Request: fold
Amino acid sequence: MPNAVELQRLQALHERLTQALQSKDWASFGSIDSAIRETLKQLDGVPPSAELQAARQRLKQLHGRALQGCENECERLRKLLTAHLQYAEGSAAYRQLND
Reply:
Protein backbone atom coordinates (compact mmCIF):
# COMPACT_ATOMS: atom_id res chain seq x y z
CA MET A 1 0.00 0.00 0.00
CA PRO A 2 2.16 2.88 -1.28
CA ASN A 3 -0.12 5.66 -0.01
CA ALA A 4 -0.23 4.47 3.64
CA VAL A 5 2.42 6.90 4.94
CA GLU A 6 0.92 9.82 3.05
CA LEU A 7 -2.53 8.92 4.31
CA GLN A 8 -1.27 8.85 7.90
CA ARG A 9 0.34 12.28 7.43
CA LEU A 10 -2.88 13.78 6.10
CA GLN A 11 -4.89 12.22 8.91
CA ALA A 12 -2.44 13.56 11.52
CA LEU A 13 -2.66 17.05 10.01
CA HIS A 14 -6.45 16.81 9.99
CA GLU A 15 -6.39 15.90 13.68
CA ARG A 16 -4.01 18.78 14.55
CA LEU A 17 -6.15 21.23 12.63
CA THR A 18 -9.35 19.91 14.22
CA GLN A 19 -7.89 20.31 17.70
CA ALA A 20 -6.64 23.83 16.97
CA LEU A 21 -10.00 24.84 15.54
CA GLN A 22 -11.96 23.39 18.45
CA SER A 23 -9.74 25.07 21.04
CA LYS A 24 -9.51 28.28 18.99
CA ASP A 25 -5.73 28.03 19.17
CA TRP A 26 -5.17 30.67 16.51
CA ALA A 27 -1.44 30.89 17.17
CA SER A 28 -0.87 27.30 16.04
CA PHE A 29 -2.57 27.77 12.66
CA GLY A 30 0.55 29.16 11.01
CA SER A 31 2.66 26.11 11.74
CA ILE A 32 -0.18 23.73 10.84
CA ASP A 33 -0.81 25.59 7.60
CA SER A 34 2.90 25.37 6.74
CA ALA A 35 2.91 21.65 7.50
CA ILE A 36 -0.13 21.15 5.26
CA ARG A 37 1.52 23.10 2.44
CA GLU A 38 4.75 21.09 2.78
CA THR A 39 2.90 17.76 2.86
CA LEU A 40 0.84 18.65 -0.20
CA LYS A 41 4.04 19.61 -2.06
CA GLN A 42 5.48 16.21 -1.22
CA LEU A 43 2.33 14.55 -2.52
CA ASP A 44 2.60 16.28 -5.89
CA GLY A 45 3.08 13.61 -8.50
CA VAL A 46 2.08 10.78 -6.16
CA PRO A 47 -0.78 8.87 -7.80
CA PRO A 48 -3.46 9.05 -5.11
CA SER A 49 -5.59 6.14 -4.06
CA ALA A 50 -9.28 6.81 -3.53
CA GLU A 51 -8.64 6.80 0.22
CA LEU A 52 -5.81 9.32 -0.08
CA GLN A 53 -7.90 11.53 -2.35
CA ALA A 54 -10.77 11.42 0.19
CA ALA A 55 -8.36 12.37 3.00
CA ARG A 56 -7.09 15.32 0.95
CA GLN A 57 -10.66 16.46 0.35
CA ARG A 58 -11.54 16.21 4.06
CA LEU A 59 -8.43 18.21 4.94
CA LYS A 60 -9.29 20.81 2.31
CA GLN A 61 -12.80 21.24 3.72
CA LEU A 62 -11.52 21.52 7.28
CA HIS A 63 -8.86 23.99 6.16
CA GLY A 64 -11.58 26.14 4.61
CA ARG A 65 -13.49 26.15 7.91
CA ALA A 66 -10.28 27.00 9.76
CA LEU A 67 -9.60 29.92 7.43
CA GLN A 68 -13.13 31.18 8.03
CA GLY A 69 -12.57 30.86 11.77
CA CYS A 70 -9.35 32.87 11.48
CA GLU A 71 -11.13 35.54 9.46
CA ASN A 72 -13.87 35.73 12.08
CA GLU A 73 -11.30 36.05 14.85
CA CYS A 74 -9.46 38.79 12.94
CA GLU A 75 -12.72 40.69 12.53
CA ARG A 76 -13.52 40.29 16.23
CA LEU A 77 -10.08 41.62 17.17
CA ARG A 78 -10.36 44.48 14.68
CA LYS A 79 -13.64 45.56 16.27
CA LEU A 80 -12.17 45.24 19.76
CA LEU A 81 -9.11 47.30 18.85
CA THR A 82 -11.28 49.92 17.13
CA ALA A 83 -13.43 50.19 20.25
CA HIS A 84 -10.34 50.61 22.44
CA LEU A 85 -8.92 53.21 20.08
CA GLN A 86 -12.17 55.17 20.06
CA TYR A 87 -12.30 55.02 23.86
CA ALA A 88 -8.69 56.23 24.09
CA GLU A 89 -9.34 59.07 21.66
CA GLY A 90 -12.48 60.09 23.57
CA SER A 91 -10.64 59.93 26.85
CA ALA A 92 -7.79 62.07 25.46
CA ALA A 93 -10.26 64.64 24.11
CA TYR A 94 -12.06 64.78 27.49
CA ARG A 95 -8.73 65.30 29.30
CA GLN A 96 -7.85 68.16 26.93
CA LEU A 97 -11.14 69.84 27.73
CA ASN A 98 -10.51 69.59 31.44
CA ASP A 99 -6.93 70.89 31.29
